[in-house]
Every structure is written in structure tokens, then in C-alpha cells.
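Hi W., the heme C complex you wanted:
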Amino acid sequence: MRWQCEPFVRDAILGSPHGAARVCSNAVLSTSQGDVLPIGAVSVKEIYDAEHRLRAHAVSRKMGEGDWYWYEYAFVTGRLHVDGHNTGSCPDCHGAASIEQTFVIVR
Ligand code: HEC
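Structure:
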């Protein structure tokens, strides 16, 4: 099975600070069940500006129980915002999701 992606860029939902976006889930994530996710679940988020031009990528990946890798790079500015395990502001906010660390799962 392949990656599942939202069909369109859309405005932020659920109070997201990321702005307009399109989210993709890998097969491990899109076929998962329940609120504890399998190791290897990956989300990739394309982040867009107000004119819907792609400006950054954000990634989350479950590496192990209690071990999440987070990455965000804004290639428009060349700034690497986050690159590491259980780090940055990412898990603080994503910890509030009803499914482990993950708000949007594309099926
Ligand atoms: C203040 C809360 C908040 C912070 C901080 C935050 N996020 Fe998110 N994030 C969200 C919300 C809410 C969504 C889903 C809503 C949407 O996609 O519009 C989301 C969606 C995502 C997604 C798509 C998968 C999912 O969980 O829905 C990824 C990947 C992601 N964020 C990565 C990151 C990374 C990397 C960081 C740290 C640099 C980060 N986020 C920081 C709130 C946050």
C-alpha cells in the first residue's frame, strides 16, 4: 500500500499553528487501528503560505514506545526549525491529540 494524502491544500484545523497544509500518512499509519500507533508510523505535512505556496515540510515518525522523531524545515528561509527525538515544541502540543501524537490520519 502507498502513502495516503489529503487531496487538497486546506486551511489549518484544530487550532494548528502550522497554517494552510496538506498531510500525508504512510501505510503503517493509514492502516493503524486504535489510539496507540505502530512503530514506523510517519506523517508528512506540507505547509503553505497564505497564497498557498509551499514553504516548509514537517515530519513526525514513531521510532519506539515513547520515542518520536520530529523534523521541520522551512526551505524558503533555509531554516531548520526542529530535527530530533522528543524535542522542540512539537510533542508538547501533539501530546494533546486523541490518537498518540497525531491529529490527522489520512486513510
Ligand atoms: C500548538 C500546537 C502545535 C505545535 C506546537 C506543533 N503542531 Fe503539528 N499539528 C498541530 C495540529 C492541530 C495539527 C493538525 C491540524 C492541521 O493539520 O491543520 C498538526 C499537524 C501536524 C502534522 C501532520 C500529522 C498530524 O499530527 O496531524 C505533522 C507532521 C506535524 N504537525 C508536525 C509538527 C512538528 C514537526 C512540530 C514542531 C516543529 C509541530 N508539529 C508543532 C498542532 C501543533
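Helices lie at 27-30, 90-94.

W.
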